[in-house]
Design a protein that fits this description.
Strand content: 15-25%
Distance between the termini: 29 Å
CATH architecture: Alpha-Beta Horseshoe
Helix content: 25-40%
Bound molecules: iron/sulfur cluster
Oligomer: single chain
Number of helices: 10
Order of helices and strands: EEEEHEHHEHEHHEHEHHEEHE
CATH topology: pyruvate-formate lyase- activating enzyme
Radius of gyration: 18 Å
Strand order of the largest sheet: 1-2-5-6-7-8-9-12
Shape: globular
Amino acid sequence: MRYIRPFDPWRARICSCPPKFNLNVYTGCGHGCVYCYASSFIKDFYNPRVKRNFLRVVEEDLRKIDERITIILSTSSDPYQPLERDLLYTRNFLELVVKFFYDKVNLMVVTKSSLVKRDLDILVDLPVVISLTITSKSVKRKLEPFTPSYHEMKEVAITLREHCIPLVIRIDPVIPFVNEREALDIFEELLDLADHFVVSTYKAKPDSLKRLVRTFPEYSEKLIELYYGGERIHGAYYLPKEERLRVLKPFFDIAIKRGKSLATCREALKVDYLSKSCDGTHLFCSSQVH
Ligand code: SF4
């Protein structure tokens, strides 16, 4: 398998995802998120490009699969980043799955873009869970410069709901001082729209932390102190444990009170998930299959 690969984040035991496969439709990403971790291991990350013979190779990969699998689009790129508007690689992949591999694939689409609405005509015919990452309102232009506004993304969530597509909302990363307060507001505001939430704190890599403090110089000292004084887990700088618990607790309190499905992502904490899976793959059983 060349482009569709087992999802195995740094062979991390702290990852509680069920087994699944990952497909990065593009190499790199044009959304420009300052906190992005993928720039630490993908060369020239913010200069996205296509993969050679994408559709042919992916079709070959899919033919090698002999059982139903979950494929996530994508973990180190965004399938609906700006390039997709003209190149349609993601749409072509969806068409391929609908045509030949419908019975082999559960699709989890993770995006920060409203462009996903363009492909609803195909997505409604697939076993699919869509995961929208929505992290901020007022600092969105700084944090994720080339993504649509908060209100546009909220509209996307409403549209997906209207189409009965199982929906996960990721509020990830939550960064102290930067979007912590807004993240909680967003959670409360979108609580009734999603079937499952994933909320997680920012895990720093040296290059992403550098970009973050350059973008928010007013918090630079505090952020550096917190992250370099925190824990080092699988090559990433984490907030100190008690800080992670402090940030996440209000989300859990609200989720418990409102009976919502919530999980964290690679927090290395012994907090109970309020859900059947961390990533939302449990929603496939309620996914519409036509
Ligand atoms: S959308 Fe995802 S992959 Fe793209 S820059 Fe942002 S965090 Fe990185």
